[in-house]
Give the backbone structure.
Amino acid sequence: MEFGAGIEFSTLQKQRSLYVPQLPPCLQGSHVQVELGDATTVPDPLDAESIKRSFPLTYGQPLVHFVSSLEKPSPNGVQDQQPPLRVGVVFCGRQSPGGHNIICGLYDAMKLHNPKSTLLGFCGGTEGLFVQKTLVISDDIVAAYRNQGGYDMLGRTKDQITSKEQVNSALNACQTLDLNGLVVIGGVTSNTDAAQLAETFAEAKCLTKVVGVPVTFYGDLQNQFVEANVGFDTICKVNSQLISNICTDALSAEKYYYFIRLMGRSASHVTLECSLQSHPNMVILGEEVASSKLTLHDITKRICNAVQSRAEKGKYHGVILLPEGLVESIPEVYALLQEIHVLLKNGVSTESISGQLSPWASALFESMPPFIKKQLLLSPESDQSAQLSQIETEKLLAQLVETEMEIQTKNGTYTGKKFNSICHFFGYQARGSVPSNFDCDYAYALGHGAYHLLAAGLNGYIATVTNLKNDVSRWRCGGAPLTAMMTIRRLLRGLGTPLIGKPSIHPVGVDLKGKSYGLLLQNAEKYLMDDLYSNPGPIQYKGPGSDSKTICLCVEDHDYMGRLKKLQSYLDKVKTSVRPGCSQEVLKAAVSAMAYVVEILSLMSPAGTGHAYHPLEDTYANM
Amino acid sequence: MEFGAGIEFSTLQKQRSLYVPQLPPCLQGSHVQVELGDATTVPDPLDAESIKRSFPLTYGQPLVHFVSSLEKPSPNGVQDQQPPLRVGVVFCGRQSPGGHNIICGLYDAMKLHNPKSTLLGFCGGTEGLFVQKTLVISDDIVAAYRNQGGYDMLGRTKDQITSKEQVNSALNACQTLDLNGLVVIGGVTSNTDAAQLAETFAEAKCLTKVVGVPVTFYGDLQNQFVEANVGFDTICKVNSQLISNICTDALSAEKYYYFIRLMGRSASHVTLECSLQSHPNMVILGEEVASSKLTLHDITKRICNAVQSRAEKGKYHGVILLPEGLVESIPEVYALLQEIHVLLKNGVSTESISGQLSPWASALFESMPPFIKKQLLLSPESDQSAQLSQIETEKLLAQLVETEMEIQTKNGTYTGKKFNSICHFFGYQARGSVPSNFDCDYAYALGHGAYHLLAAGLNGYIATVTNLKNDVSRWRCGGAPLTAMMTIRRLLRGLGTPLIGKPSIHPVGVDLKGKSYGLLLQNAEKYLMDDLYSNPGPIQYKGPGSDSKTICLCVEDHDYMGRLKKLQSYLDKVKTSVRPGCSQEVLKAAVSAMAYVVEILSLMSPAGTGHAYHPLEDTYANM
């Protein structure tokens, strides 16, 4: 279809197209001032040198805060005109609800500050970028996609901007099109790519500045500066709606166990959030499995025990959630997948792989049902992970549980009714959803933010909005250098020296010490036995509940930016209270108190462990 | 779980529990008068004698209309007190959103007219009825389920009330519990069962009156008196939301054909309505296939042609909807299923069935992929139809199309990109949904109606609400004898005399001459090629769109009851205008005009074909 052509609007879509996203105060008003903060470092001091070497020109840049003219009013009170900009924008990675609003926010901000600015959309994702297939975004085009789901304004491909050739094509495109800025809409991989582009462009003295925005419904782009990802809120709400419907169904008919697999790649954020919203009987997170090193047998056993306990209370129904990444978190399956991927890479045909696996891997492989064998043999994705959406772990587990329950029935250890299961995979049916109010507002603010970063000539940044769990009127906006979110993975694979990965923004899994997971743990037993299902219903766009946010966002104590500000104000206060001329006592007290602070920090910060903000553990291997 | 215990409410559920369904004017006010209309007949005169023989005591009863005290005010103006009633209610068949509101409406009406009335719910569906497992419905219980989805207030089983033994258990339960009335909540089968119970009870001089309500999200309980079924609106909206999300997804990534199978049993109403709401590229209705006698090969070819035409326009994505009943509508597959079911019934093991099939059936069976073979061998449902929800027709078709496209690629007749498909089955994730406003209101009115039928001592009726496409203030309420909806199927199976079925309320398929299907046909080419996807979004409960109804309901010209009333008023007018003493001219004119009317009717009504309201064709064989 023609990109940007729009489609037939339903009543709701028409309504949504009239919705005006709320803008945080710091992005309102006639002039948005860009305040530079302190120079940034990386979460793990051990990585700092390496990352600096890879990104000499974009490492260590300062944090950026936007300050509204509402705080510092501009003299004339009218909209501040900026020089016109030419900016390109590209969708990367899986479509996430709210993606269109990034473009709408960017477009509105550009036109507001100079109607002569031009926004070019790259058609068909990164492929469009490489071949310079563009669309000039106009008022009409933006109007057709305001607050709408999907990525169909421009389309997308899954391709990344990683190879030398791809990076050069992108550089060439930006130079040929004479762009002042390029906005990359995507998740961890795309923002890592954006960082690489920024560095390469700077090195090539290309005038195009590169800015990323955190858009991925997987919710795995999380760090000091990024509290949430565009799309996550909507995806979790749609999935929770469906899971809850299934819970209600289970409770009505009382005869099936539903095994539901959810999208989210290696991280289990979607599954965790959906569990908190809908209270299914059981959840198995990839991060739990990896951290406890649970085998396929352990997991099967755990589910069988649940079935057993519930049968003893006369219950023969239940709902069990699994993340699609679970399969890679099970140590022996992961190892099997690695062997398969190496063989595939070496050109071994799928028919002859089984014979070339190590004895134990071959034994595991041969024990699997045929449908899973076929799925395990699929070529890995471009990021080397398995084709998670294609591997029906829910069916595998349901089958293993059924077999085990049959054995127990024969043994006489299980005397309940026959175990019946129904399997579901929820993914594609949520991705294209009309975005929630939260995702609309968040994405729109990020789009505005991306403009202000580019207008300030900043390169290699991600647009940030923080304090998200509070009202929009209290959101803080700014930007952080992409390099400041990077870590390096060191993996001991087999024998030999550790494999050191490239500096990257890595997907962050569920924090097993975090509050969201704690909330789940705390209720797990009740949810398992008591069927305390809760049905959040379909996303509402008006009235009570329409401004709800994810539970994960609301229970976690983010506000890194707020604390940075607070720290700065304390330091300033000490400085102003203890100026030359103050009494000896005050000075002594200040020195003594500060010595204590410095001592604590030095105790916390040595060799990359235990420093205040270290990246969430990702023990589940996924390079 | 404890029935009637309620669950943890989400924000939306709390809100919904406060929703007050609108009540049509005829059910408001201090007194609802029950007006008896003319004696009823059946749609096909050929069936009349047979049905009368089977239902001597409940055949030919009059239609019932409720007239509000708003029209005929009661003298004292206060709520009319009726004698207290003891009523039982039972959920039968698949859970449909809105089912709980039948009970809420029934309960409220009972208590309104006498607080001493008692409503007993049967726990666990018909099984609870047989063993007299009851729950006294209270204010608290009703409060926990107002406007909520599922059947979990009482639970349900799929069992029917068909065998002599089951009917006797039901009779025994109603007598033991001293019930004045029994309300059966269900679809075609359950309402047929209700008719049988009513007749049996009357014969046994049991005082319990039986009333049915049309609740089935399949939407296949349609006839002169029933315009829509509770649950259909919600199910179609939830499915359309998901289908639309998938359309948006297809349009964003442009690389997959999505094959989506929808629930609905043998009829394709859900699929048709969802197509009208979301405009997917292609739909294959079971009724079309049966009426055109399309083979599996024909259907595959049709899809391949679509893929080919779209590829010529550079499009490699699409969304194709299939009803779950499709598989039984394909003549050769239906015949194969029949052979399998006969062998299963004769105790042949699944392993040896293939060898005992007729040569052509065996050839077809062996040509199928293994997963479908396994599914085709499943035992039929209690109504002798195949286990439609378990047969993955979408995967079969996707695979057949893929194979065909590969052949065409090799032949050089297809030169486009590789055909990729993703398959989905949408069913369970919609059934438990929080019901739409329409389903809440409709079910609540039916619940009230059921009470008034019982209070009037009527037996063997279905509660009706008509003129549904108009505002609630114009809805007409009443009841119709269940026998008046019955037909008898005559099937020529193989050689010999036709097999005559029992009088039943049969599922009605999509009317290929109807306006809804016409609307689809009219747009089919555009939808196929132009991607005119429309996303109705999630069900809204407040604001614009929250009172929307299904397109099928809105475009069809129902209002049978309205026309009956109009006919009556014309007849009355003729009578009053032409009274003894009127002029010869007037009398002559009246006689001549009426002769003409009678002539037309006699031309239309002879041998069961071509009379005004004959049952919608169900050429697709399903006994």
